[in-house]
Amino acid sequence: MTVKRETFGSQLAAVAAMASSAIGLGNIWRFPYMAGQYGGAAFIIIYILCSFFLALPIMLSEMVIGRSAHLGTFGAMEKLAPGTKWKWMGLLTVVTPLIIASFYSVVGGWSIGYLWKSLTLSFSASSLEDSTLVFATFSSSVWGPLICFVLFLAINCIIVLAGVRKGIEKFSNFTMYFLFALIVVIMLYSLSLDGSKAGVDYLVKPDFHNLTPKVFSSAMGQSFFSLSLGVGTILTYSSYAHDEGKLVSIAAGTAGFDLIFAVIAGFAIMPAVFAAGISPGQGPGLIFSTLPYIFAKMGLTSPWISALVSILFFLMILVAAVSSCISMIEVGVAYLIEQHGFTRRGAVLLLFFGMLGLGALCSLSFGPLADVHIFGVSIFSFCDMLTSNYLMTFGGLLFVIFAGWKMDKEEVRRQLTNGASGTFASRIFGFEYFLIRYVSPLVIFAIFLTNLAS
Ligand code: PFF
User: Fold this and answer.
1) Is the CB of 228 inside a 6 Å radius of any atom of ligand 1?
2) 3-class DSSP state for residue 5?
3) How do the residues of the chain divide into helix, strand and coil, expressed in percent and rounded to 5?
4) How confident is the model at residue 317 (pLDDT cuts 50, 70, 90)?
5) Does ligand 1 come within 6 angstroms of the Cβ of 27?
6) Best of 324, 388, 390 to mutate for ligand 1, by most ligand atoms within 8 A of CB?
7) CB atoms within 10 A of CB 350
8) How far is the CA of 197 from the centre of ligand 1 (A)?
9) C-alpha Rg value of the chain to the nearest Å
10) What is the residue with the minimal CA distance to atom 11 of ligand 1?
11) Ligand 1 proximity of 179 Cβ (cutoff 6 Å)
């Protein structure tokens, strides 16, 4: 079935869309607490290596497949490997982002709830335990988180409904500037606090003493999650890119912005954590328990600054989460439009109700459904673990194997070099192709096995 495809307006628009997909809760929420738990600068160095040698080849593979076929995951695999079972692998990567979008929207919804709490100045400064209790009470209640979740999902669906250029591209262009401006302001404020220097030292002085295999697999998992890899979002966005755009530049731009943002987020959060005298290894509760306590403590001396910083902070989280979530939804929308002849409106509506069901279960799994366990964990944690530890890694593995072993090498070369044939272009291509064909699959496979065994 031939459908007139939408495209991004320019190469810069493609970078902005992919970088906005990449920059999200993973950078602001996951990266700082992981750096906190796994040794500060040592983790950051390993993370950069993982991004370059493992994540970038997957990103390039997804881009090559998507732009070569100008179709979403299922259609691309069917077109590039006709008559094979690869298209069913493509279907798997349609399902994965929708599972992620469902539980990610629950956290996105919390950011709406916390934005509201910031606006109404209702954070508690009595103790960190108290702040943790406020979060536990909020997340385990029924209606508050559910309403915020539905609101978050609806905002996403409205943007996706507006289309690739009028919805996704426009929102992503705005997001990029907005997020960078906000995180820099918050970082400058955080660095100006008394006692913040210890947080800076923590992030710049590497501690290589506690490097375990877990640190490596966590750094890799984080770089996949942060760059939105293995789930077909980069593939689908690349299918909307023009043939003249340089994929290597788009990939480098996306990974570069994502990394810079994560590091600035680290410098925005850790100095404030140290200035408040809190341990850096707080784990996932960092954003919704620790930071509100810090904001409330600041409020004892300067209420307006505290209110402003917390409003900006949760607004930033909300915008970052939306720009990532729309990329996940677009994977399913492209599939339904291309393969089943849906209109964009019909596709968005169907997915909205699907994600509403799964997301509601994830939200309730903090409260009334807390005792429902799948493989020993809550519904939310199961969806998170299933996707982050297995499906994303598996998807990434499939994409590099497809680009490195199944696709025609000359087509891969054409996509990556845009037809340039000089020695420099050939060397760069040779290096990238080597990473795609050998290094990435082997290392990802090894880590996938480690995750299965643990
Ligand atoms: N990269 C996003 C983040 O860092 O929050 C998360 C994400 C987006 C994961 C899109 C997967 C995805 F398809």
Assistant:
1) yes
2) coil
3) 80, 0, 20
4) very high
5) yes
6) 324
7) 15
8) 31
9) 21
10) 228
11) no
* Ligand 1 pocket, residue 168 CB under 6 Å: no
Q: What is the DSSP string of 356-373?
A: HHHHHHHHHTTTTTTT--
Going from the Cα of 226 to the center of ligand 1, the distance in angstroms, rounded, reads 6
pLDDT tens digits along 359-391: 999 999 999 999 999 999 999 999 998 998 889
- Do residues 36 and 286 make contact, with C-beta atoms less than 8 angstroms apart? yes
Q: Residue 55: what residue type?
A: A
Burial of 422 (0-12, 13-18, 19+ CB in 10 A): exposed
The answer to whether 372 and 365 are in contact (CB under 8 A) is yes
From 450, 435, 398, select the one nearest 235 (Cα to Cα): 398
Instruction: Indicate whether residue 327 lines ligand 1 (CB < 6 A).
Output: yes
Gap between the Cα atoms of 427 and 98, Å rounded: 38
What domains lie within the chain, and their CATH numbers? 11-453 (1.20.1740.10)
Beta partners for residue 40, in sequence order = 206
Residue 226 Cβ contacting ligand 1 at under 6 Å = yes
**Nearest-atom index, ligand 1, CA of 331:** 13
User: Measured from the CA of 258, which atom of ligand 1 is nearest?
Assistant: 4
Q: List the Cα angle 271/274/279 in 5-degree steps.
A: 130
Ligand 1 pocket mutation, candidates 96, 156, 222, 328, criterion most atoms within 8 A of CB: 328
Residue position matching structure tokens 């979530």: 325
Question: Which residue shows structure tokens 């404030």?
Answer: 272
How far is ligand 1, taken at its centre, from the CA of residue 194, in Å?
34
Q: Residues 364-390, buried b or exposed e (16+ Cβ, 10 A)?
A: bbbbebeeeeeeeebbbbbbbebbbbe
Place of tokens 């040794």: 39
Q: How far apart are alpha carbons 112 and 318 in whole angstroms?
A: 7
**Two structure tokens written together for 325:** 């979530």
SS3 for 343? Answer: coil
Give the pLDDT confidence of 321-366 residue by residue, as tens digits.
999 999 999 999 999 999 999 999 999 999 999 999 999 999 999 9
Chain centroid to CA 289: how far?
Answer: 21
Phi, psi of 24 (to 5 degrees): -165, -150
Which pair of tokens denotes residue 101?
Answer: 């979008």
Candidate of 51, 228, 229 to mutate for ligand 1, largest count of ligand atoms within 8 Å of Cβ: 228
Model pTM score:
0.94
Nearest-atom index, ligand 1, CA of 22: 1
